[in-house]
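Consider a concrete sample entry:
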Amino acid sequence: MARTGLDRIWTVPNVISFARLLSVPLFFWLLVSGQDSTALIVLVAATSSDFVDGFIARRFNQVTRLGALLDPISDRLFIAASVVALVIRDMIPWVLLAVVLARDVVLLVAYLVKSRKLSDIPPVHFLGKVATFVLFVAFPTIVVSTLVPQPDIAEIIAALGWFLGGVGSLIYWVTGLIYLGQLVPRKTVSPD
């Protein structure tokens, strides 16, 4: 029996999302091994594919439940790969790694405790997209600062990356609290 509508698996956007997921280990290896230029190319391609698959899904009526799950999963994995690799390379402190990853761990635990169905995962919030975008700009900016030969300019670029990383982490946690609020059922008070 062929899947139809939201239950489809093999759509063009989902294939693009699968390819993006498969590129996470490559990106991580490139970044850890100091191949910064190539790692940045993989990250830019992956980030671009995120916009492309969303556009195709909406434009050609290929929106699926699987696609709605794959997109945020690949974003979380790229963010995790970025912060872990940057800590391994001593480009960011482990505290930033803990702050960023703790948010996803808290949400995962809350989801596992409160839900049992994939349909219970809250939809992606606009602020979550903003946080992801800011972090996707912040971490590569820190990496780019290592590629700039002029120390003064490299320092300015690194400072910009750090600033964006701080802002992105804050927005990331605010969005996490919004998602937690959506997972926890509200108690209704009945009038006496």
Q: What stands out?
A: The radius of gyration is 18 Å. The chain has six helices and no strands.
